[in-house]
Amino acid sequence: MKMLLLSFFLFASGIGVFAQPAPVADTNLTLFGRGMYPGNDTTYAKLRESGFTTIILSSFYIKANGDVFSGDDNINPIIHDGRYVGDKEWLKRVASLKQRPTSVTRIEILLEGRWINQPPNTFDFIQDFSDAKKVIPGITTGTGTNSTLYKLTKVMKDEMGIDAVCIDDESVYNSVSMIKYGEMIGRLNMHMSLCPFRNYKYWRDVIRGSKKGLIDAIYLQCYDGGMRNVPGRWKDSLGTKLPIYPIFLCRGAFSTCGTSHGSKTANEIKGEMVRFKKDYPAMTGGAIWQMADVNSYVIKGCAVQTPESGTATTVSEFLDQLKTSLKEGL
Q: How far apart are CA 288 and CA 53, in angstroms?
């Protein structure tokens, strides 16, 4: 009865009762989903059957006017003026990921920012928007319920059904604003995950400055600029017990069947997982970047054109091989 009265009070007061965000799986096998907006029903059906437990919708960008764009469509926003204005069929596809039978238990959204020397983007604007003292035309600054940041992030929770916001900051590195944004994510009853490739101090400051339980996963980039990263070393440098999952770039990346930016075959990924596990026995998962490259591998016929890149000839087969390479490496 007390819980019923509490629920009534929360709804009556406009606070609302949110479903608990899904935690990471005990063995967390993650796939980043670039190339999936708006996507198609067939791809999402394959993901439900893939054996991956976490799907991270990627990549998404916040613009100067507060709009949010998918990296798959830089013309039409998915969020405008605090409302979802994107493809409605995509929302149904995202929701379908958790519909049984499925292996997917958690859905995240990756916020990606600019690289060095690129125009201001996502994390520049989070830094500016989160400062309630700033006056920005068309933006309600701060992190209160009427703020631009709160409204667009609430859409991710309510309309898109997101369990966690994944932070891929590669240039701004302002821990004060990120801690503030994370606190707001927590008030919306979501988790925050991190996606680093360098700058131990920044990520350590964000972890230490965040409320316990908010951050529950770290996805470590082990390709391109982070190809020399080792999860165990990062765990020690961050001084954290949070799970760290290495991310691998699969063949097919950058539209080539050969090695590019540290991309690896399924067998090579398994070998790296084994190596990382020896150094970091507590490691309980890994991740693949990204669905667009999985499709590229198959479309280019890499198994035939470049046999040393692998043997998969279909998307389902390649997803299964990649999932297996992560799992068997544990």
A: 12
**CATH number for the domain including 78?**
3.20.20.70
- Residue 58 domain flag: yes
Look up the pTM and report it: 0.94
* Nearest Cα to Cα of residue 132 among 123, 145, 122: 145
Grade residue 198 by pLDDT with cuts at 50, 70 and 90: very high
* Distance in angstroms (rounded) separating the CA atoms of residues 198 and 184: 25
What lies within 8 Å, CB to CB, of 309 at 6+ separation is 251, 252, 257, 258, 265, 297, 302, 303
Measured from the Cβ of residue 12, the count of other Cβ atoms closer than 10 Å reads: 8
Count of the separate structural domains present in the chain: 1
With respect to residue 187, please indicate whether it lies within any of the assigned structural domains.
yes
Residue 117: band (very low, low, confident or very high) from pLDDT cuts 50, 70, 90: confident
| Cα four-point dihedral sign 302, 304, 305, 308 | positive
- Tell me: the pLDDT tens digits for 36-74? 999 999 999 999 999 999 999 999 999 999 999 999 999
**Domain span holding position 55:** 23-328
pLDDT value at residue 20: 86
Residue 139 forms part of a structural domain: yes
Tell me the per-residue pLDDT of 23-39, one tens digit each, with 9 for 90 and over.
999 999 999 999 999 99
